[in-house]
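My main concern about presentation is that the manuscript never shows what a single data entry looks like. Each protein is reduced to its one-letter sequence and a matching series of backbone shape codes. For the editor and my fellow referees, an illustration may be useful. For illustration, here is how one protein appears when written out as sequence plus structure tokens:
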Amino acid sequence: MRPISAPVFSCLAVCLCLAMPLLAQPVPSPAAPALTDPAAYVASQFGASFKLDPKVPPMFGDLDGDGKEDLVLVGTSSTPLMSKEQFNFRVEDPYDSYFGTGDTRITSQFTLHFDGSSRCFLVVFGWREPPSKSKQVSKFVLINTPFESASIVNLRFKKKNIQAIEAVDRSTLHALVFWDGRRWRWSAQGMDGDDSFKMPPPN
């Protein structure tokens, strides 16, 4: 068998280098989670005491202004405080806090919804991100906000563009539930007496 000459060997080496990218199998990037079963998601993130309200579709937005997608669901629970330690979420009552009574140990006993359903907003910051080892709370249960319909709207707050939950109750009162960087707030009049707090939708 004749030895391979240097020019032929060089040609084979070049061909092999060119073929390597074609032979290599690409490593698939992890797919972002999909909300295929909202009811199961509620149970897994907030506990079995919470039931999804199927009449209100999931809402998506950037409620804390960090550029990551947040999730808002509507659920019901007669015992919203029971599983907060186990599932690491925070219960807040921005509506009653606005009127001076923000202790959820007290206000969780109130029934403000006309149908007695104890509906609440279930908020998950960065819900598509992998679970974090940080102890920072990223899940919230917002109780006692009166509403018949809800949607995500744009908001300008402290020179920052964020989004908020707009709640419309049976009297057609439009109110906002929004994150101020530390806690959830409720407002029906806008901030500092200015009613023009909503921003137009992006083009």
User: Anything to note?
Assistant: The helical segments are 6-23, 38-46, 84-87, 94-98, 104-107. Residues 11-32, 191-196 have pLDDT under 50 and may be disordered. Residues 38-199 form one domain. The first strand starts at residue 51 and ends at 52.
